[in-house]
Amino acid sequence: MAFYSTSEFKGGLKIMLDGDPYNIVENEFVKPGKGQAFNRVRVRNLKTGRTVEKTFKSGDTVEAADVHDTDMQYLYNDGEEWHFMDPASFEQMTADANAVGDAAKWIKEEDICRVTLWNGVPLIVEAPNFVVLAITETDPGLKGDTSGGGGKPATLETGAIVRVPLFVQSGELVKVDTRTGEYVSRAKEA
Amino acid sequence: MPASHDWSACATAAVLHARAEMLARIRTFFAVAGVMEVETPILSHAGATDPALASLSLSGGLSSVGFGADRRLFLQTSPEFPMKRLLASGSGPIYQICRVFRGEERGRRHHPEFSLLEWYRPGLDDGQLMDEVADLVRAALQRPRLPMERIRYRDLFREVLDLDPFTAPVQTVREAAITAGIPDADQLDLERDAWLDLLLTQCLEPRLGRSGMSFLCDYPPSQAALARIRPAGEAPYDQAVAERFELYIEGVELANGFHELTDAAEQGARFAHDCAERRRLGLAEIPPDTRLLAALEAGMPASSGVALGLDRLLMIAVGATHIDQVLAFPIERA
After folding, report:
1. Which portions of chain B are predicted below pLDDT 70?
2. Is A55 close to B50, i.e. CB distance below 8 A?
3. B96, B119 Cβ separation under 8 angstroms
4. CB contact under 8 A, A7 and B50
5. Within an 8 Å CB–CB cutoff, is residue A18 touching chain B?
6. Partner-chain residue, chosen from B107, B185, B253, that has the shortest CB–CB distance to A28
7. Are the folds of A67-126 and A130-187 the same?
8. Which of B108, B182, B201 is nearest residue A32 as measured by Cβ atoms?
9. pLDDT class for A183, splitting at 50, 70, 90?
10. Are A31 and A39 in contact (CB under 8 A)?
């Protein structure tokens, strides 16, 4: 089991607290002129996404969390779980709905996703920042409208619904920013 | 060899100029005041025994002076001991601007190597030295009307936290930290003075120096460090206090001063206590400065002394929020 001393604390370090993996968001070293030093840290629970503050006595140690990021290819969903493959080793892994979260509505087969592994098991799946998806359903827009003003809802092949300009039609490909859920542009191909 | 992209200075040219000009004003201040600039060794056979300080050391490369590879020399955490030996040698009032080194300290206001201004005034007590520190800061910052106030350590805790830091039992101090909402305070295992340090740094320091200079003074004797202890007298001085002060501006601790301990036996006892604490806490053993003890034995004039962090003073002068903004090359790109 690996441990980190508070002197190794910095943003991005992954530590175990109360049995959950956390990411250090911010670390502040505080020390009076003479006397005990402390580390005041903001940490994000990687399972729940919640951010909390903690105070450590400088010099204390905490258990390191076996957490790292890797790029994996999304293969398919079997109705319950999402299957991914390491493109280098061809090793396959499954992620549950908790891990996939919001990414579920953006990813389609063969997309490369950033997967955060905890003890070798997918903990968080992130969709690519931009995805290109086909529109399966949207109202026909007004002819001649090219401004994009106003917009209308469109259902994508993954089931996600985004607002698109009026001139975009069913069957077309669109580029979407998954971090904001907003339409970026029309696309020619994936 | 990987290409280096971090060769250039961290501080801007304007900040480097501000540092140079601030140093010039400080030297002028002491020239006018008749305080002599001195230099003392950065490397010493003795280190700082204070358990809260981590000394850096080196060994080897000194066979030409007869030191074997196992002979360790310590980088100074402050020039206090050699400067006191100068006082005992009859130097009169002295100051020094030097680099000091403290391991395990890194953050927005901490850097393992930093610039310290330290000075000693024979014949002055801590109250008189506070006045001179205020004048020095006004000159260094070019803010001649910057107001100063003095706040006794005990009064600050009583007023803000309704807690007597001198008499409250450890359990009460701990509860005050939890009540104050310090994150996770109930999970911490601390000794009494460390609880006080936690309350001071988390709840009280941010209030200090909001409209000028705040001198926090009359510390608990358990936090005397190298200050004289004034025995209990009449109320409100019904508790013995350490004649120690700290200067705060904008919530930042800038300086630590003492009415200096000159009693060799008491200094020896504090060294012994520090060393016992270091052993109990499993910290590195540090040889105490026996030459300081000999100097005190020979007789050091009654003096007050203070150490002021120049990087932090410059941070205030230029409005920096991180110490790296005022350093030419922080340790990561040293």
Report:
1. 1-3
2. no
3. yes
4. no
5. no
6. B107
7. yes
8. B201
9. very high
10. no
A36·B52 Cβ contact <8 A: yes
Which pLDDT band, with edges at 50, 70 and 90, does A188 fall under? confident
DSSP structure string for B27-67: HHHHHHHT-EE----SEESS----TT----EEESS-GGGT-
Judging contacts by C-beta atoms under 8 Å, the chain A residues touching residue B188 are 55, 57
> With b meaning 16 or more CB within 10 Å and e meaning fewer, what string describes B96-127?
bbbebbbebbbbbbbbbbbbbbbbbbbebebe
CA distance B198 to chain A (A): 8
Kindly report the pTM of this predicted structure. Answer: 0.85
Residue A141 confidence (pLDDT) above 80: no
Q: Judge whether B106 and B56 are in contact, CB under 8 Å.
A: no
DSSP structure class, residue B237? -
- What are the residue ranges spanned by the domains of chain A? 3-63, 67-126, 130-187
CATH code matching the domain that covers A3-63, chosen among 2.30.30.240, 1.10.300.10, 3.50.4.10, 2.30.30.30 = 2.30.30.30
Q: Considering only CB atoms, which chain B residues are within 8 Å of A32?
A: 197, 200-201, 205, 246, 253
Chain B positions in Cβ-Cβ contact with residue A7 (cut-off 8 Å): 104, 106
CA distance B221 to B231: 10
Walk me through the domains of chain B, giving residue ranges and CATH numbers.
13-147+211-333 (3.30.930.10)
Quote the pLDDT of residue B18: 98
- How much is the pLDDT for A53? 95
pLDDT reading at A131 higher than 80: yes
What does residue B253 show for φ and ψ, rounded to 5 degrees?
-75, 125
pLDDT at A123: 94
* Residues B313, A147: Cα–Cα separation, whole Å: 56
CATH topology for A67-126 is OB fold (Dihydrolipoamide Acetyltransferase, E2P) (2.40.50)
pLDDT band at A151 (very low <50, low <70, confident <90, very high): confident
Residues paired with A73 in a beta bridge = A85, A112
Tokens 């998806």 belong to which residue? A133
pLDDT for A145 beyond 70: no
For residue A16, the surrounding DSSP H or E stretch is strand A14-17
Please identify, in words, the CATH class of the domain defined by A130-187.
mainly beta
Each residue's pLDDT tens digit, A66-94: 999 999 999 999 999 999 999 999 999 99
Helix, strand, coil shares of chain B, percent, nearest 5, are 40, 20, 40
Q: How confident is the model at residue A143 (pLDDT cuts 50, 70, 90)?
A: low
pLDDT band at A160 (very low <50, low <70, confident <90, very high): very high
From chain B, the residues in CB contact with A40 under 8 A are 183, 202
Determine the residue of chain A that is closest to B189 in CA distance.
A57
